[in-house]
UniProtKB/TrEMBL annotation:
One of its GO terms (molecular function) is D-mannose binding. PROSITE patterns: L_LECTIN_LIKE. One of its GO terms (biological process) is endoplasmic reticulum to Golgi vesicle-mediated transport. It comes from Penicillium nalgiovense. This is L-type lectin-like domain-containing protein. Keywords: Membrane, Signal, Transmembrane, Transmembrane helix. It is found in: Membrane. GO terms for cellular component: COPII-coated ER to Golgi transport vesicle; endoplasmic reticulum membrane; endoplasmic reticulum-Golgi intermediate compartment; Golgi membrane.
Length: 325
């Protein structure tokens, strides 16, 4: 009988999930966060989601999408993580589709990272006066001269401030960009939000051509008020009014980012700071890497003992049978 390799046993046991690059900087590695990711079929065998709740007019088609609203008037839908996102540094990549019939459409959808879980309400289908971060994909222009729509903007809520709906969030905008062509784009539409605590927050969009990202904004903590709660729930919501659209979520991928070198994360630093760092000795690897190596070694040794025991038992049993004859 051919025994499985140690690596196969580890994979089957689900104990090893090797980190992969999710960032341009080779010193930054990532670990997927299953608790905050969505992909087909979205639901388990009991037609429930282990890590997400959903409500309102949200409909899930297991082979295709999570539809927050259909192309019908006066709809609101939402989906939110059951557990908070506590990673210090993270990246969220969202694939979505906004489409519908007719020449007029609205209103849009939002991505949330807030202190409280998503609750149905008047701001793109979720509650107003939220505490945390809201990224709004606004497809209907109310009253904002000089701005092309669709418009994507970030708002940092303090739990008290009302969203300026009459002027498409003009009074609340932390950063934003016009994204003409985002709706009914000829390629998969995606958004990639990257956050380094106390350092930077950036948003990139893919809608012009596949594998081509357009920077929407890139904020540093020194210049902007980036106050995302350390414990925040991840959510998505959408709303239609008299005008409507299908707001579909195709996939959601969240990853925990970490640096291989202590204090060697130059993201968001000036060229002068980086030049100073070059003259210093290379920092020692963080404990996270050594802890991972020690865990992997212990796991390999554990399975080695099991395999060795199995071989010993097989030899003993063979000798015992031979002695009978």
């Amino acid at each position: 009988m051919r025994l499985p390799s140690i690596s196969s046993l580890l994979c089957l046991a689900g104990l090893v999930a090797l980190p992969v690059n999710a960032y341009d900087d080779p010193n930054i590695k990532s670990i997927p966060l299953r608790t905050h990711s969505l992909s087909p079929p979205y639901l388990d065998s009991d037609f429930q989601s282990r890590w997400f709740d959903f409500g309102g007019d949200t409909v899930i088609r297991a082979d295709k999408y999570v539809r927050l609203t259909a192309d019908r008037p006066s709809q609101q839908g939402w989906i939110a993580s059951r557990v908070p996102l506590t990673a210090t540094n993270w990246q969220i990549e969202l694939e979505f589709e906004i489409h519908g019939s007719g020449n007029l459409h609205g209103d849009g959808f939002a991505l949330w990272l807030t202190k409280e879980r998503a609750t149905q309400g008047p701001v793109f289908g979720s509650t107003d006066k939220f505490e945390g971060l809201g990224i709004f994909f606004d497809t209907y222009k109310n009253n904002r001269p000089g701005v092309s729509f669709p418009y994507v903007m970030a708002m940092m809520g303090d739990g008290k401030t009302t969203y300026d709906q009459a002027h498409d969030g003009k009074a609340n905008e932390l950063a934003g960009c016009s994204a003409r062509g985002l709706r009914s784009a000829p390629v998969p539409t995606k958004a990639r939000l990257t956050y380094f605590q106390d350092k930077s927050l950036s948003l990139e969009l893919q809608y012009k051509s596949e594998d081509s990202w357009t920077e929407c904004f890139n904020l540093s903590a020194e210049d902007s008020n980036i106050a995302i709660p350390s414990v925040a729930y991840l959510g998505l919501s959408a709303e239609t009014g008299e005008l409507s659209d299908n707001h579909d979520i195709v996939s959601l991928k969240a990853e925990n980012l970490y640096s291989l070198n202590r204090g060697n994360n130059n993201k968001g630093k000036t060229t002068e700071d980086q030049s100073k760092n070059r003259g210093r000795s290379a920092p020692r690897p963080v404990k996270e890497k050594s802890s991972w190596s020690w865990f992997l070694l212990k796991t390999v040794l554990f399975f080695a003992v099991i395999v060795g025991g199995y071989f010993g038992w097989t030899v003993y049993r063979t000798k015992a049978r031979s002695s009978r004859f």
